[in-house]
Amino acid sequence: MDNEGTKIIPIIGYVIAFLSPLLGLIYGAILFFYKKDVPLYRKHGRYIIYFAIAMFIVSLIVAWTMGWI
Asked: What's the alpha-carbon Rg for the chain, to the nearest Å?
């Protein structure tokens, strides 16, 4: 029970990655690389990084199809 972590920290990371992929990438990297003692944060840190990269690609595709780029 000592190193389980709270579930709100990864949820905040997913919301940040959805709103700003660059900040989500940084948040996920912090969870993945600096919170190694908590397996929940390490697992979700990797998923937040993947989600942030996917959101960045989706935003680029949307911007390109809308003619903003």
From this structure: 14
- Going residue by residue through the chain (69 aa), what tens digit of pLDDT does each one get? 456 778 899 999 999 999 999 999 999 999 999 988 889 999 999 999 999 999 999 999 999 999 887
Amino acid, res. 13: G
The DSSP code sequence of the chain is: -TT---THHHHHHHHHHHH-HHHHHHHHHHHHHH-TT-HHHHHHHHHHHHHHHHHHHHHHHHHHHHT--
